[in-house]
Amino acid sequence: MPRPARYVQDIAEAMSIKYNNRVYEKKRRGEDVISLSFGEAYFDIPLFRFDDLPTPELYHYSHSRGLPELRALLAEYYRGRFGVPVDPATEIVVTAGSKIALHMAFMATLAPGDEVLIHEPAWVSYTEQVRLCHAHPVQVPYETTVAEYRHFITERTRAIVVNNPNNPTGRLVTSAEWEELHRLADEHDLYLISDEAYSDYVLEPGGFISAAAFDPAKTHTIVCNTLSKNYGMSGWRIGYVFTNEEMLRQILKLNQHLITCPATILEWYVVRHFHEVLGITAPQIRDVVVKRRAVARMLDGFGLRYLPGEGTFYLFVSIEESGLGSEEFCTRLLEERGVSTVPGIGYGESCDQFIRISVGSEGLDRIRSGVEQIARLIRETAAVPELNGAAVGA
Ligand code: PMP
Q1: Would you place residue 15 in the very low, low, confident or very high pLDDT band (cuts 50, 70, 90)?
Q2: The CATH number, out of the four listed (3.40.50.150, 3.40.50.2300, 3.40.640.10, 1.10.443.10), of the domain defined by the range 57-276
Q3: Per-residue pLDDT tens for 110-124?
Q4: Whole-angstrom Cα distance, residue 122 to residue 234?
Q5: How close is the Cα of 98 to the center of ligand 1, in Å?
Q6: Cα–Cα dist 245/219, whole Å
Q7: pLDDT for the residue 390
Q8: Is the terminal CB of the chain with fewer CB neighbours within 10 Å at N or C?
Q9: CA 164 – ligand 1 centroid, Å
Q10: Region for residue 317 given its phi and psi (left: phi exceeds 0; alpha: psi -120 to 50; beta: otherwise)
Q11: Which pLDDT tens digit goes with each residue over 194-223?
Q12: Rounded to the nearest whole angstrom, what is the distance from the C-alpha of residue 113 to the centroid of ligand 1?
């Protein structure tokens, strides 16, 4: 029997999706699960009309860069909100979700054997996508500062991945850090691949800074973003990537061979309702970030620690006191207590003493029950015997 390619066999499953699939299966069987593992916020968004969208166009492929009207709206969005100029004619491609946009960015920049710096905790797909390009992810442990990145750069380094705000910590890149990152990119001839999927989940005005704000010509910057999080439309699979014209041309070829274009009907729908949907989701995004703050206080009350961060709807919670690794911890939490979370090990080798919780899809009361179960499981599996069985407060 022929065998699948070795390097594909070696790729790990996406940890968050693996756990979410278990949740979907449990729910289908009618089990109640407190779902703190989902990578999305559930918003109230009305369904607008489809039957007034242009036919027959919506039955057919669109331009492989994406509908010009949609490119114009996305370019204006980045210019208006984040002060980043994007030429909709030459610098942006709309594609089927940002996951493939990131992969195309890796394909367009990496040769076999090249190295890519990825700061942990890192969203689950960066390392595997880099491996799929026959390149090497260099995982930078979570305590490392941007100033220390130099120690990880070699002759083979081609790119640095930056996820701002970070999934799973919510951490934001400061302007001083961006200056340092762009200096490194200039000095070592590197690409900065900036994943800005959670750009709107930031309360302070100016708190989110796009990578391209420091490189408006985008000479070494490739930005990926998506409608999955900021619009709450993950199921629609619409993402985009922008960079300089020449690099974009390379990415466009990949898009032509891999995707052709996103679903045209959905592109048209987004064009028609772009501002309406943003207007509807903006206050809900604010609410979820406020809710995240409330959950952070809840964790404080339970004596649980988490890595610092303010954006997104995730918290990366320490389970260090438990004697369990993060996969065993999350499996037991799900199977024995009906609470789904994502093991930290999926976010890097240095993160096995963490789990990710998401506050996007459950109300505060159920989140509190979930957090209480996390605190209990930590106590009951504590490596230090005197913590074992200690009362759980808050
Ligand atoms: N980047 C990050 C940091 C994410 O969390 C996700 C989704 N979980 C993506 C990219 C991909 O999102 P999509 O493909 O839905 O645009």
Answers
A1: confident
A2: 3.40.640.10
A3: 999 999 999 999 998
A4: 20
A5: 6
A6: 9
A7: 46
A8: N
A9: 12
A10: beta
A11: 999 999 999 998 999 999 999 999 999 999
A12: 25
Torsions phi, psi for 293 (to 5 deg) = -60, -40
> Predicted confidence band at 1 (pLDDT cuts at 50, 70, 90)?
very high
Residue nearest ligand 1's atom 9 by CA: 99
Place of tokens 């919780």: 357
| pLDDT at residue 394 greater than cutoff 50 | no
Residues carrying CATH 3.90.1150.10, the chain:
6-44+282-389
**Cα→Cα distances 326→52, 225, 321, 323, 370, Å:** 49, 29, 11, 10, 16
Write down how long the chain is: 394
CATH number of 6-44+282-389: 3.90.1150.10
Rounded to a whole number, what is the distance in angstroms from the first to the last CA of the chain? 58
On whether the pTM is more than 0.85, the answer is yes
**CATH 3.40.640.10 domain position(s) in the chain:** 57-276
Best residue for ligand 1 mutational test, from 16, 223, 228 (most atoms within 8 Å of Cβ):
228
DSSP string spanning 65-101?
T--HHHHHHHHHHHHHHH-----TTTSEEEESSHHHH
User: Which protein residues are within 6 Å of ligand 1, measured from CB?
Assistant: 39, 97-99, 123, 163, 167, 195, 197, 226, 228, 234, 239
| Ligand 1, atom nearest to 99 Cα | 14
Q: Which atom of ligand 1 is nearest to the CA of 167?
A: 3
Query: How many Å lie between the centroid of ligand 1 and the Cα of residue 220?
Result: 22
